[in-house]
Automatic annotation (TrEMBL):
Example of a GO cellular component annotation carried by this entry: cytosol
Name this protein carries in UniProt: Aspartokinase
Taxonomic source organism: Leeuwenhoekiella aestuarii
Pfam hit, one: AA_kinase
Keywords of this entry: Amino-acid biosynthesis, ATP-binding, Kinase, Nucleotide-binding, Transferase
Domain Aspartate/glutamate/uridylate kinase: 5-278
EC number: 2.7.2.4
Domain of life: Bacteria
GO BP: homoserine biosynthetic process; lysine biosynthetic process via diaminopimelate; threonine biosynthetic process
């Protein structure tokens, strides 16, 4: 068998028990040659985001950084019997590097600073897990993925330079034995850290698999696989045993957050199967994503995205919402980095549901008001129902105030208050 890629997310390594369980997963799945991709532990990316926010408010809450420090140190204390094990020094070296950066930095570029800081979540988690694997008798080699995975300088949303990344990975990353590295992070041509966008570790696993022609990719989650809905919000979600790449791309694109949306296309291109499995029950088959039938079992799938913004626009001068107006609106949406989830237009109105991820809504609305009548509904939810049935739709609409509804073939979208 060729080599595989495993990806462990934040939930799987949120504490010492999680790290121990990761080793259990390796034991139970009888691994061969393997690249292991790991995210930051638990909610450490959020904590590091807070460090960046505090830094820019000029009130660097040193307690946030101390929290990050203590979190990793405590996990290490639980994992390593020997308090003078080299891993403690390695953790400290990374934290000192981070503090050194914050002291020296002169760049006012928020996104640049963000990437130089949040990358430490993954550097710390992989350092700890690698040392633990060694303690448990595994011969695993730690790699700094930033030496392989190259992006442009779009900080916080780095675009992969496929040519250079492919060359680096195929020349330098061994395909024998266990290689362990970070998800989510990368670097630009000047060697500065970049990131691939929140939740981007799944994508890293796919990039490595694509560049090195892996046999398969498994992402280990706290759920049994891809379900027909997020079990946190929908009762009766059922496990999907099989989904095609196409279906998985659609589900992820509409917001099924169990797989990062960018993960699937590289895998589809080379027909590398993706398995989504439970790190608590690694023997179970989970979900397989590959070529073949659309979805099995064939059930309605529900996706919910909260904290969205519905912007409704109409012209000030009775003109129609046609090419020129719409072109202008899209230019502004792009400029203010609004992720568009849904569009609906008629002769005189244009509605768009967006994700205000970069907090640019106010600035965008000021611009739009110069040319349009603008109504904004903040904090709306967007529901997408795929493989909709009448019964599923009635149930979904129950007790909700629907602001907008869009029906396309077998997909229905609702924006609700
Ligand atoms: P990771 O540990 O890799 O970061 P995530 O937390 O990003 O994992 O993804 C797993 C979570 O995705 C689950 O806990 C679940 O709440 C959520 N989720 C959303 N939609 C689905 C779905 N359709 N099927 C399974 N889980 C889903
Ligand atoms: N640690 C990063 C995040 O929380 C990447 C990931 O977990 O996939 O967004
Ligand atoms: Mg995640």
């Amino acid at each position: 068998m060729g080599f595989e890629v495993y990806k462990f997310g934040g939930a799987s390594v949120q504490n010492a028990t999680g790290v121990k369980n990761l080793v259990e997963v390796l034991r139970k799945t009888e691994i061969g040659d393997l690249v292991i991709v790991i995210s930051a532990m638990g909610k450490m990316t959020n904590a590091l985001e807070d460090v960046v926010a505090g830094y820019f408010e000029a009130t660097l809450k040193s307690d946030t950084l101390e929290l990050v420090e203590a979190f990793h140190h405590n996990i290490a204390l639980e994992l390593f019997e020997n308090p003078s094990a080299p891993v403690f020094k390695e953790i400290q070296t990374l934290l000192n590097e981070l503090k050194g950066f914050l002291q020296r930095n002169k760049s006012p570029d928020y996104d640049f600073v963000y990437d130089q800081v949040v990358c430490y979540g993954e550097l710390l988690s992989t350092t700890i897990v690698n040392a633990y694997l060694e303690q448990e008798g595994y011969r695993s080699t730690w790699h700094d993925i930033r030496e392989y995975l190259k992006t442009d300088t779009s900080y916080r949303e780095g675009k992969v330079n496929w040519e250079v990344t492919m060359r680096n990975l195929s020349r330098k990353l061994p395909r024998k034995g266990i290689q362990l590295t970070q998800g989510f992070i990368a670097s630009d041509a000047n060697g500065f850290s970049t990131t691939l966008g929140r939740e981007g570790s799944d994508y890293t696993a796919a990039i490595i698999a694509y560049c090195l022609n892996a046999e398969r990719v498994t992402i280990w989650k706290d759920v049994p696989g891809v379900l027909s809905a997020d079990p946190r919000y929908f009762e009766d979600a059922v496990l999907l045993n099989f989904i095609s790449y196409q279906e998985a791309i659609e589900l992820a694109f509409y917001g099924a957050s169990v797989i990062h949306p960018k993960t699937l296309q590289p895998l589809q291109r080379k027909e590398i199967p993706l398995f989504v499995k439970s790190f608590l029950n690694p023997e179970n088959s989970g979900t397989q994503v590959s070529i073949g039938q659309l979805i099995e079992p064939h059930v309605p799938c529900y996706i919910r995205k909260t904290n969205q913004v519905l912007i409704a626009l109409s012209s000030l001068d009775f003109s129609f919402m046609a090419e020129e107006n719409i072109g202008e609106i899209f230019k502004l949406l792009g400029q203010y980095k609004m992720k568009v989830d849904l569009i609906q237009n008629s002769a005189i109105s244009f509605s768009v549901c967006v994700d205000n991820k970069y907090k640019n809504l106010e600035a965008l609305v000021v611009k739009l008001r110069a040319d349009f009548k603008v109504t904004v509904h903040q904090d709306v939810s967007l529901y997408t129902l795929r493989h909709a049935t009448d019964k599923a739709l009635v149930q979904l609409e129950k007790n909700k105030e629907v602001l907008l509804k869009q029906v396309m073939q077998n997909t229905v979208q609702l924006v609700t208050l």
